[in-house]
Amino acid sequence: MNVFFYAVPALIIAMVLLVAGKAVRRSLELRSAWRSGLTAEARCLRSYTTTDGGTGDSGVTTTLHHVYEFTTREGRAVRFEETNGKPTVVEGDIVTVHYSADRPEKATAHAPSPVKATAGTVAVLAFCGLIVAFCVGFMVTYHQEFAGDEFFGGLPGVTDGARAALHI
Q: Is the pTM of this model over 0.70?
């Protein structure tokens, strides 16, 4: 039974760290594309939305996707998909994309905004840090309060005062 109180928070921490890693990776990709100074005219090939949620009492999240195609300075045709772009861009529109020479498939049609991107990444990392801190705090508190009790696994460490408080 003890393993449940350690495994679930550990799984939550692992998922949160994956989210944090993805946020940092995308932020670095955007910075690389903006700093490269390489731009191209891209055509919007497709614009569509996806929805998530809406079952029971949960809200619905709608995400806007755009598929763009452009040609690099070297003549290579590149097609990429980007989420949360401008809602006014529709199929057939021409937009300016920023890309890096070493990874043009990680291009972006978002206008350069490093401060906004950094603020968003910091906010995501702060939220992830809060969740990790809560999970670690939960595991430490659980270990201090219950892991030593015979009823919860037979490990030493629970004081007589804690046993009395639990009426064991």
A: yes
